[in-house]
Amino acid sequence: MGDNFKNQIDGKWLAAASAKTFENRNPADTDDLIGLFPASAAEDADGAVAAAKKAFASWRLVPAPKRGEILYRVGELLKKYKEELARIETREMGKVLKETRGDVQEGIDCAFLNAGEGRRLFGETTPAELPNKFAMSVRTPIGVCALITPWNFPLAIPTWKLFPALICGNTVILKPAEDTPQTATRFVEILIEAGVPPGVVNLVHGRGEEVGAALVRNKDVQLVSFTGSAAVGREIAASCGQNLKRVSLELGGKNAQIVMEDADVDLAVEGALWGAFGTTGQRCTATSRLIVHRDVAKKVTDALVARAEKIKIGDGLDEKNEMGPLINQAAREKVLRYIEIGKQEGARLRTGGAIPTSANCAKGFFFQPTIFDQVKPNMRIAQEEIFGPVLSIIEIASFEEAIAVLNGTAYGLSSSIYTNDVTRAFRAMRDIEAGITYINGPTIGAEVHLPFGGVKDTGNGHREAGTTVYDIFTEWKSIYVDYSGKLQKAQIDNN
Q1: Which pLDDT score, from 0 to 100, does residue 491 have?
Q2: Within 13 A of 193's CA, how many CA atoms are on the CB side?
């Protein structure tokens, strides 16, 4: 029997007002009940917003360097608890320990990056147009921020949002995905241990349709930061737009890796294998399309199929395994539907496409690494986000065709090209429509000190990570100081 977990609101651990709960089970072994979590509703969400609003009055006045010291302590504690956190993540969302350790490391990196920003948060000074006058711009906090985060990076993505929000002086409500509530709970416990004051960070568990929707419509929430599907992102954007509420969206992807005929084929195969099947294909940056020059297509495809068939599938807590399960039954059913769609469209299934039959996979939501070739760019499996271990191989005849195919979807998050031609590499950097481009590397593996986000249906133009994230979580204020001792009329013709 699992434990009973609670929400964190205004420094108190509380059950849902309704006392209702939901189960959290291990996707690698559904007999393993991790715990019961609050099935919260609008009443709980509104209470968390009220707590965050109250705490904002004092938190915004804490000097940013002092806020940075707290985040530095968070980073040290994440290092201390790294293995514990990785095992919690693997147990509740399935990816292998090597990957969850990386997820926690990303949170550590993000903590130290933002802690340092407490002594920067630079504004600008500029000459005033009138004598004896000073002009500058500074960043100010926005207020209460609702952070709605996904299950596939249950520690890293909350840190991408929460640490910048805090260093800028905002207060937050974290609404984690229902599939990974324990990681979020442990994370908030660590924040409290590091010295984050009551009400500055609030945690509310529950369904997006209940808790997420309540946070989005609450008038005291000034900003919503959401990572998830494009469909839900559109609904959030529409609601926030009606209320002139700031919103940051990081949505879907249909990422592609190009392999040109001059590429290092072995390196390209390694990149495609990791990009397509890392995290069981459940990354917004996952490689779901492989665009291969026809001169090397057979060699690349055959090598990929051979390698994919050797991937060890099983419980991610067993370090012999290389790929864990899908997150839940609905995700597996979705992948199965796309396998049938691919076959009906005329793509050729080269490997995978089924649920593993081995005994160690019997109790989880496992799925075989799957590769289609003879895929056409307009097929649904080449256009729609599957979010599973399914790779579609598309042959092309030229560099120009490769770029056109890569750009030919509604999304534009991550991209990759393998080539040893420096001219092609630079043309790809210029012409690819994506927020991230890798040269001779897979589509996954972003670093926290560079902007993260995409174009087209991948989001609404904001970028997380790096320093650009502070443009999400702060308002700019322009300040003028006139020390002339007389009225000076700016924007008036004084000649």
Answers
A1: 77
A2: 14
